[in-house]
TrEMBL record:
UniProt-listed InterPro entries: MFS (IPR011701), MFS_dom (IPR020846), MFS_trans_sf (IPR036259)
Primary location recorded for the protein, binned into one broad class: membrane
Protein name: Major facilitator superfamily domain-containing protein
GO cellular component, one term: plasma membrane
Source organism superkingdom: Eukaryota
Organism of origin: Boletus edulis BED1
Xref: PROSITE patterns: MFS
Keyword Cell division listed: no
Localisation: Membrane
Start and end residues of each stretch annotated as Disordered: 1-21
Annotated ranges, domain Major facilitator superfamily (MFS) profile: 41-454
GO molecular function: transmembrane transporter activity
UniProt keyword annotations, A-Z: Membrane, Transmembrane, Transmembrane helix
Length: 482
């Protein structure tokens, strides 16, 4: 385990990156920006985090129209979904690796132009090959939104404030995940897929202008590799984008990754087969109405953001008071139990039983309530986990988030493809119940992390700061020496 007099990244060599951090964040780091400036930064990163949700979420409802327009088949166009998962996994690892060297602002400004080019390229595509190419470019460009946003929040908010800010960020982005499909469905019904892709390009241009003129560099002073680079290395340095996956060997990070994934699996279990479960059961066939079924889940995500952030911050403050001001990073994970152990498993399981056995308006209403509760629960899982990610790796939170996102994407892609066959084979009740049980299993990992977090960090130290008693006291942590 690293000591108080050692660098933040311990003795782990990081050749050719310059990303070693020689000081833990102090109180002054979080006072660089005023309250108003922090709100502007939070709004900008939340809007940027919405872009990938619309890029991915709106594509599926457009598939029938795209296949007709390009004289292709829906199965061929659907290849774009898997390609987008690959682009997202590669992109988030690349952008997060380079943000440790160049900072947040530079990487945001590098990524968005790819999204602009990809969006207009898709709008102008004349065959399926060009469409898939530009979709890869589009997704690659915006893939860093989540990881960079979470890291930015960690840069500017103190531990006791981080949960609320993280809740706002995740609430906004998850709302996009829910409202994107109905927007895509409405676009397919009343507009055109080309017009929608062009609109995404215009949105990305506006986002680029916001970042260029109103978004400052938020990385800790002196923590970027470029701050210590000399000569040509200031222009470009090669950083292995796959290096972030090494963080997954830590049982702490793997535990929160699995809980994060299982929570989203429950949401996907409700939403992916929705046309064949709730839609078929209650006679909802029109694309626009099927898309509207996603809205309660999105509103739940949005409502859950403020609740999750408030509870997370309150839990951290209360735990610090009990220890006379000493902070332990696993404290924020105590807020996960409401969502991970109660709301998420109950909502997804109850929805499955309701769809199978309750007819008419009553059954539909119960399902919509379950969608809302699931949205609240998922956000109450993701928000504390996001805060914990930044807490345990202050200057490399973006890379940890990238590892979590990449691993989660690789699991969600095949699992999502199994939901409809599973509903057809074993039924909606069994499918949803399995998803609920997986969430409970995920929470058991969180419980172990809360109870044995220090031992787990010592077992596989991937560059953690020193969290021994007294090392982190009221965020006023001393600089390390050499």
């Amino acid at each position: 385990m690293s000591t108080e007099e050692s660098p933040l990244l311990g003795d782990q060599p990081q050749p050719n990156t310059g990303t070693q951090c020689d000081a833990l964040p102090t109180e002054d780091v979080y006072n660089r920006f005023g309250r108003g400036e922090k709100k502007v930064i939070l709004a900008i990163v939340s809007l940027t985090g919405l872009v990938p949700m619309f890029v991915s979420g709106c594509f599926v409802p457009l598939i029938p129209q795209i296949s007709r327009d390009l004289n292709s088949t829906p199965a061929t166009v659907t290849l774009g979904v898997g390609l987008a998962v690959l682009a997202n996994s590669l992109g988030v690892m690349l952008w997060s690796a380079y943000t440790s060297f160049y900072g947040r602002r530079a990487i945001y400004l590098c990524g968005i132009p790819f999204t602009i080019l990809g969006s207009f390229g898709m709008a102008a595509s004349t065959d399926i090959n060009s469409l898939l190419f530009w979709q890869f470019v589009q997704t690659f460009g915006c893939s860093g939104g989540h990881a960079l946003g979470a890291a930015t929040i960690g840069d500017i908010y103190k531990v006791e404030e981080r949960g609320s800010a993280m809740g706002t960020f995740f609430g906004a982005t998850l709302l996009g995940l829910a409202i994107a499909p109905p927007v895509g469905g409405a676009s397919a019904q009343y507009w055109s897929w080309r017009g929608f892709q062009a609109a995404l390009g215009v949105w990305s241009i506006l986002q680029l202008l916001l970042l260029a003129f109103f978004f400052p560099e938020t990385a800790y002073p002196g923590s970027r590799g470029i701050d210590r680079a000399r000569g040509s290395r200031k222009l470009f340095v090669w950083i292995n984008p796959l290096r972030c996956l090494a963080f997954l060997r830590s049982p702490n990070i793997m535990s929160i990754t699995l809980m994060n994934t299982f929570a989203l699996i429950s949401e996907y279990a409700l939403l992916v087969p929705i046309a064949y479960t709730v839609g078929a059961k209650y006679g909802i066939e029109r694309e626009g109405l099927v898309g509207a079924l996603f809205l309660p889940n999105g509103f739940g995500n949005f409502a859950g953001s403020s609740i999750a952030g408030y509870i997370s911050d309150k839990v951290v403050r209360r735990a610090k008071e009990k220890r006379n001001g000493v902070w332990v990073p696993e404290d924020c994970l105590r807020a996960v139990w409401i969502g991970g152990l109660v709301l998420v498993p109950i909502s997804v399981t109850l929805s499955g039983f309701t769809t199978a056995y309750v007819d008419g308006t009553v059954g539909l209403i119960i399902n919509l309530v379950c969608f809302f509760i699931n949205g609240v629960g998922v956000d109450m899982v993701l928000t504390p986990i996001g805060a914990y990610t930044i807490d345990i790796m202050p200057s490399r939170g973006a890379e940890v988030m990238a590892a979590i996102t990449a691993f989660r994407s690789l699991l969600l892609a095949p699992v999502s493809a199994l939901f409809i066959p599973s509903v057809e084979t074993i039924g909606v009740t069994a499918t949803n119940s399995i998803s609920g049980i997986s969430a409970i299993l995920g929470y058991s990992l969180i419980w172990l992390t809360i109870r044995y977090g220090a031992q787990m960090r010592a077992y596989a130290d991937v560059g953690y700061p020193n969290f021994d008693t007294g090392a982190l006291h009221d965020d006023g942590v001393r600089e390390t020496g050499h």
